[in-house]
């Protein structure tokens, strides 16, 4: 078995021009509102200026992170016929494995996707092999779901909304996990794209990567791609289409891609967090007024799934189709 998780130390010192924010969120739960406010301010600035940030001191245990990467690695190392048992053409399937995709953005990856919240509702559909997969990935999923609610409380507070604005919806909301396995790239080929530029549905994505390969570009970056370093113990957070909608355009979802790592195979685990599958997300009423008219139509994750098959030939961000002047 290839032990991908041991490579998490790699790339820790790799910073690009315009280095991405790394935020210590240990004081988000502080009883001192002034201490919390400073962290909220840092998160609000990162959301506005970069569309993403990394978090440390986040409360997700190192063992849960290492075990999740190991479980993913063990799954992808299984014989092809075992993994093929989860192959499915239906994008609505609760568990789906594929080595390519009809989504118009997969270039060189295999993936396993499944829902995770609430865990007891979904875990019985997860793979039973490797034997520890459900336990390891389940522990990680629960810790990441808890973190997502904490982070969203800070993000909506940074927008001037009540920190509890979405707590109930998120608690009962979507957690969609995508485990990605990218082959080692060729050093002679230059940058080889494993996953083409795209933005995610949902409010936020929390991503764990075994080694560098994720790159991001904010709408103010002029198309310049910034590598996201694999900082030991850190988790990467970026904004999704439904947060752009909720914020009525004050925040923008992040365009990102995956480049093949020329040193090794790479694994990433993306956890996408949003409202329940059929729940419509619209602009927060508090952020709509005469000077800031409503910019987006309501939509749900279900609507996004309906949109996906139409988005293969020429990729378009889902949120662009929701703009009220885009019809």
From TrEMBL:
Keywords: Iron, Metal-binding, Oxidoreductase. Pfam families: 2OG-FeII_Oxy (PF03171), DIOX_N (PF14226). This is Fe2OG dioxygenase domain-containing protein. Belongs to the iron/ascorbate-dependent oxidoreductase family. GO terms for molecular function: metal ion binding; oxidoreductase activity. InterPro entries: DIOX_N (IPR026992), IPNS-like_FE2OG_OXY (IPR044861), IPNS-like_sf (IPR027443), Oxoglu/Fe-dep_dioxygenase_dom (IPR005123), Plant_2OG-oxidoreductases (IPR050295). Its cofactor is Fe cation. Residues 173-275 form the Fe2OG dioxygenase domain.
